[in-house]
Known about the structure:
Radius of gyration: 13 Å
CATH class: Mainly Beta
Number of domains: 1
Order of helices and strands: EEEEEH
Number of strands: 5
Structural class: alpha+beta
Largest sheet: 3 strands, antiparallel
Bound molecules: zinc ion
Amino acid sequence: MPSIFCLVDDKHIPLYRILWVSQVPHFCGHEDCDHEGDYEVRLEMDESVWVNSQQERDHVLRSMEAWQTGQEPGPDEGYSDS
Length: 82
Ligand SMILES: [Zn+2]
């Protein structure tokens, strides 16, 4: 069985709490923003966690896919949009 948790940054996030995952790196232009260039993983309750590489973002997507389909996640070799 695929895990119901996904490791995001340093946190084990229950996959059912994830609402969406950003396709492009964050950019808002605010000087005090700590997350320029990071990918946002949006959670319920107005929370977000962030990953700083496309590889980590793809890991989240693959984990969600595995959880939904009941299949073990494949190797983290990139997520196809097609
Ligand atoms: Zn920002």
